[in-house]
Amino acid sequence: MSARSHDIVIVGGGIVGVAAALALLRNGFDVALVDRAATRPPAPGAEVDARVYAIAPGSRRFLDTLGAWPGDPGCAYQGMQVWNADPALSLRFDAAAAALPELGHIVAHDVLLDALWNRLGAARLVQGETVDSFAVEAGGARLGLSGGGHIRADLVIAADGAASSLRRLAGIETLGWPYAHQAIVSHVQTERPHRATAYQRFLPEGPLAFLPLADGRSSIVWSTARAGERMALPDAGFAKALHQASQDCLGLIGEMTPRKAVPLRLLHARDYHAPGLALVGDAAHVVHPLAGQGLNLGLADVEALLGCALEARRTGRKLGSARVLARYGRARKLANLEMLATVDALYRLFGLQAPGLDNVRGLGLALVDRVAAIKGPLLRRAVGI
Ligand SMILES: Cc1cc2nc3c(=O)[nH]c(=O)nc-3n(C[C@H](O)[C@H](O)[C@H](O)COP(=O)(O)OP(=O)(O)OC[C@H]3O[C@@H](n4cnc5c(N)ncnc54)[C@H](O)[C@@H]3O)c2cc1C
Q1: Are the CB atoms for 32 and 10 separated by under 8 Å?
Q2: Quick one: pLDDT at residue 355?
Q3: Whose CA is nearest to atom 51 of ligand 1?
Q4: In CATH, what class is 75-109+177-264+354-383?
Q5: Name one Pfam family in it (predicted).
């Protein structure tokens, strides 16, 4: 059967996949986007998906260049406070003190996705289908679709998330392990205003974050080894547990949206490419959410891959050639691995239990807070500048 042909086919209509489609389209590539959902995501507002992301300034700049930074992007957060046992021994970041307009934005998943889809005029959309086969043939790659059709491209981009079927079909192995934590997420009302500050406490059972929302509520991400027990609590019991765990940082907890628990794992693809195929976003790497970096890393992958595609066009190389894809791998693999390892080390450091260790960790955070030579680079790393 003859197959329609494109420069690039992207599989996966999440934020990373749609950002990749938009970035490549805007630069004149002929792009098709395949997603298993039959329709585009619903308009924001329904809170069907309570996920929010801490978007670093570097990611915001990239989305801006795509014309896809939302008109109403949520809360620009100015401060961050991190502690473990004693809030007096905290590490604090402050945008004004670092001469930054903000540390980042807390943006809802559906707001970001909607802004991207709204710009996606000219892409060919293949919706409601998954990919059954991947084959490399002369001059490109050929995908078999679940509806029986085929589609071919010079380059296929796998943006189909952590359980990527393209990664499996291409035989790319992964390294990784599940965490003992599950992340409980919900939007909560708090007694005191958040003052555009993100709070994170490292508890023995796992880190608890309060991310400020524009409507005055906070979005919580509680990565906990006690998720089953915490999820079984009625709202009032959960609110009490949250209040205790947060050491009253925002006062009592009021109304909350239904809680969801998400299993967490670390995953890293051994290779970011195979002939005719590149992996981006969670298809290539999955990181614990305690540092809010997963999506930021995925958007940085897209930016790097765009650079490689533009360079290939300028030098007359084929998009899916080993040389072009190796350049992409070099640009991203080490940087992502470094972040995965750092976050995994933090997970382990704060998970260790021994008498007196809480004091040592608290003093460590307070020390970092006072030493500009450590705090400055840490902040630049955290906000991606
Ligand atoms: C609790 C939590 C909090 C987080 N907080 C942050 C944060 O603050 N900041 C941050 O940067 N990151 C954060 N992350 C990480 C972030 O959620 C992910 O890194 C990001 O969503 C990955 O996007 P993606 O587009 O690569 O994958 P996904 O969002 O998983 O999208 C994959 C897409 O592929 C489609 N698909 C899947 N399989 C197929 C198939 N076979 N065929 C066709 N289509 C397919 C799906 O329908 C979906 O549209 C957090 C994660 C968690 C769990």
Answers
A1: yes
A2: 55
A3: 289
A4: alpha beta
A5: FAD_binding_3
pLDDT interval class at 86 (50, 70, 90): confident
- Residue 364 pLDDT > 90, yes or no? no
CA 159 – ligand 1 centroid, Å: 9
Packing angle of the helix pair 57-65, 109-118 (nearest 10 deg): 20
Superfamily name with CATH number, domain 4-45+111-176+267-346: FAD/NAD(P)-binding domain (3.50.50.60)
Cβ neighbours of residue 267 closer than 8 Å, sequence gap 6 or more: 162, 174, 175, 176, 282, 285, 286
- Integer angstrom CA distances of residue 83 from 33, 117, 350: 43, 38, 10
Decide whether any atom of ligand 1 lies within 6 Å of the 104 Cβ: no
Token pair in block for residue 96: 């004004």
Ligand 1 pocket residue status of 207, Cβ below 6 Å: no
For the chain, the structural domain boundaries read: 4-45+111-176+267-346, 75-109+177-264+354-383
Instruction: Tell me the per-residue pLDDT of 170-223, one tens digit each, with 9 for 90 and over.
Output: 999 999 999 998 999 999 999 999 999 999 998 989 999 999 999 999 999 999
pLDDT at 375: 59
